[in-house]
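batch job 7 of whatever, protein = Ribosomal-protein-alanine N-acetyltransferase
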Amino acid sequence: MSPAASAEVPAPPGVRLRPMTPPDLEAVSRLEPELFGAEAWSPATLAAELDRTTGPGADRAYLVAEATDEPARILGYAGLWYGDGRGDADLLTIATIPAARRRGVAGALLTSLLSTAADAGCRAVLLEVRASNEAAQRLYTAHGFTPIGRRRRYYLAPVEDAVVMRRVL
């Protein structure tokens, strides 16, 4: 049985966390290029990822954070691969719109997915982050992640190293 993405984590005021659903894909697909530029996932990739959150062989969890006072306005989203729960999970993506940054939205999404990984039986969560993305690195450090290495030239647009971080659960 696959663990459900937990929406039980307290969210900031005016924000609700919930599992991502197919109707969210249009809005998330519009946000991807704004938030990730040339590294944005395509609508087809997003749909394929979401397909792996349910049914036999489910090995991923995706959440959205939405404004409670503005129906259907997605403030952020995040995804996790937890595999069979016997090893490490991977944080696949996490993003918030600029207006929602520094309000606890990303932290709530991350905390929820850490709970999902723990519920799945994972030992740790890994992630990659751009070496220049100091704000994200501070977020991850505040949530117990530590740097364990670098992946040279991991990002392509523009070319940049990734810092690999890990948190033991």
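notes: The mean pLDDT is 93.
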